[in-house]
Model the fold of this input.
Amino acid sequence: MKLRGLILVLFAAILCFAASPVIAGSIVIKGSTTVLPIAQKIAEIYMKQNRDVKITISGGGSGNGIKALIDGSTDIADSSRFIKSKEIKHAVENKIYPVPFAVAYDCIIPVVHPENNVYNITLEQLKAIFKGEIRNWKDLGGNAGPIVVISRDTSSGTYEVWAKKVMKKERVYPGALLQASNGAVAQAVSKNKYAIGYVGIGYVDKSLKTLTVNGIKGSVETTLNGTYPISRPLYMFTNGWPEGDTLDFINFVINPEKGQKYVGPAGFVPLY
Done:
């Protein structure tokens, strides 16, 4: 993981100083709903400064973004996880060569209804809840009531990270209610006082109560110093080394004086 991170930083450093001829046109971006607010915010600023370039952005999940890159229907695939080996194999078979660019960091935070009186939870308890082994809030020191589990669908990069870091690759139990986006999870939890779900830090607002994990609050500081246990880099993938408008936009996104200034306001953690 450290080597992969170093490679991505080197990619970023090269891009920041690369000359990038701009060809007027359009850029299509598809994929992760977690990366979506970052892409939208930076694209908005970029288009104001480059009025001859149109950027079209849609969500749908990390897996769908990578599929779109492979089938040639997107220029950039947003992903909240690293590309899988089987996806790389499928891509190469289709003469697509995905190149990753880390664009921000995120932490995945367990959230409950504001009326819930639980404040902290352990990784082991989270796993037991999402496996269906703990089913009542009283077993966690809260008020008695059935736990309603809200999870992401399997095409989600957020789900993939949760499955790896919390579930340890064990399945979420069949009684969980699956949602297609961070926003949908946030809305479902905010309307059900017995619910628990998980969202990227950029989706936390006053309608949700966040839980600390193993006594550690998910934040910019704990994400960057590695103490928060459910954190991850966020990516944009291109087919091969980007060119033209796509290269110029990627340069803009990762530049500390340009796109990275808007990562924080979008609710996420900048690279630098």
Notes: The chain has a mean pLDDT of 91. The domain at 2-105+233-262 is CATH 3.40.190.10 (D-Maltodextrin-Binding Protein; domain 2). The CA atoms of residues 155 and 228 lie 24 Å apart. The longest helix spans residues 2-17.
